[in-house]
Structure formats: C-alpha cells, structure tokens
Amino acid sequence: MTNEWDIVAADYSRLIGESGDVWRQVLINPAIIKALQPLPPGSRILDLGCGEGYLARILAPHGWSYTGIDNSRTLLNTAGVKKSPGEFVQADITKPIEYQHQFETVIVNMVLMDVDNAGAVYQNAWRMLKHKGLLVVTIPHPAFRRPGAKLAKTLFSKIFRLDPFIRINSYTKSFFQKGRLPDVSKPTIVFHRPLSLYIQIALDQGFKLLDIEELAPVKNDLIKWKQPLFFTKFPQILFMVFSKDE
User: Fold this and answer.
1) DSSP 221
2) Number of other CB atoms surrounding residue 36 within 10 Å
3) Which one, of 45, 26, 76, 6, lies nearest residue 232 by Cα?
4) What is the pLDDT of residues 115-151, one digit of tens each?
5) CA geometry: angle at 88 spanning 73 and 46, to 5°?
6) What does pTM read for this prediction?
7) 18 in helix, strand or coil?
8) How many angstroms separate the Cα of 241 from the Cα of each of 72, 123, 134, 244?
9) In which region does residue 209 sit, left (phi positive, over 0), alpha (psi from -120 to 50) or beta (all else)?
10) CA Rg, the chain, in Å?
C-alpha cells in the first residue's frame, strides 16, 4: 500500500543524496560512526526506518553487516538503485517485527519524529537487540527544531543572517501536524514530543541511557555549507545511545 513516504520518495532521495543532507554529514554521521567504533567487523547493525539506505553506504567501509527496514517500497527500491549494500526488508517499524537474527546495534536515525508510536519502535529495537546491545537514536532537537516553531529575525539580522528569535509554543505538549522538508514538494506528518518523553519511553521499555548529546554545528561547517551563522547558538540534533541491559 502506498504511503506518504512513497509519494515524496524522489524528492527525499535528492535531499539525502549520497551521504545525507547538511546536518547528517556535519553532525549525525560522525556521531554515529564514533558510537559504533568499538564494534568489530562483521557486527550486525539494524537500521529501523532506513529510508533509501544512505547509512548503509556510510557504514559499509567499516565492515559491519547492515540490515535496513522501512515501510516505503519506493524508498527501498531507491536503495537498490543507489547500490546501497546490505539487506533491505519492507515492514512497518511501529508494528511487531519478527526477524531471524539479533543485532549488536540498532539505529533509529531521524525517524521517531515521523511515527505516531515511538514506543513501538523502541519495543522492536529491544526484541531485535542482543544482550548488552546498543540503541542509537537521533532526532531533530525538539526544543529548537519542532513543528510550528517560529523563526523570526529583525530587519538587521535578516540582512546579515546573524541571529533569530525563536518562539516555541506548548513545548511540553505532544502533537502532530504536516511539515515540509527542505526541497520536498509534499508535506509529511511530523510529531512533536518533549525531549524527556523520548528518554522516558526508552527507559520504560527497559533501556539504560548511556550517552546524550545536543549536537550543534561549528562556524567553519556553516560557512562551507552556506548556512546562517546563528545556527552555532542552537543544537540542531539530539543524539542518544541506550543499552539493553537485561
């Protein structure tokens, strides 16, 4: 059955490119690879909500075994077109998934803000992780990059792109609305949840929080990518690592 990600798959694939968009290349990719460095070659990695499989291409040089699961057949087909290495499976990550293998690491990369049931995704990760396995989660920082957040600037700052005023309404409440990714023609449903909720749902599932980082870009990266320099003042990505300690 066609879903909203099938509809935007072509635009999304162009946005992601070969190695990810600006925040993936500058912030997310290095953080994920650093977290996975202790894994020996051959370790099994599961990417829940893998999309068009860009992480498979990023992780391939390290010799890990990659499996991606996504509910969009079009995005999975695109993974094949882009020659993304690994195994790809079509399934709804918010429904129970039975799989023949367990994994040393599960990655949920820029996905939880797009699903209605984050707890179900954590449950799948728990079932599919080995004992002492790692769960790596990234999302847009919910305090600064959420649906409905208003970005306004003074006339001076509009001209020189120096500093925003950010107004966030009802941060503590969970809600959803349609949102449009950069250069993607159709909007998709985006969910806002406060930072604490993403952590608490994982803890309730039984995970132990090992690491949490609020990733912000540095000036040189922003200049290279032609991004406003005020982004150095605000974290763009929330990065979390949990462990399955039964």
Assistant:
1) H
2) 19
3) 26
4) 999 999 999 999 999 999 999 999 999 988 654 455 5
5) 125
6) 0.92
7) coil
8) 26, 15, 7, 10
9) beta
10) 18
